[in-house]
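dumping this here before i forget
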Amino acid sequence: MAVEDFTPGTWSAQDCMARGEGYAVASDHEFGGKSHPYKVYVAQFVNVRDIDLFSAAKELYFALDQLLDDMGDDGLSVCQAAKDQAKAALAKARGDSI
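structure:
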């Protein structure tokens, strides 16, 4: 998955309880330009226990991707189990089959 495929901007948790909508994850990117700005919600009606995980998803994805890139493909990593878990998590995030 390319960087361009993600909703741009930093994702953050938003408390929408005042409007009776629960919690959401929103991008801080300004969509629509200055004349018609609007907010894009990455996820809505998120369980409060999961909100931090959702808002960190993009950062976690890129951190795992960088970690695997840094570790290389030689299979000699002392953290092979963690590397395998990271590959599986990234595959799931990308929508790839393992």
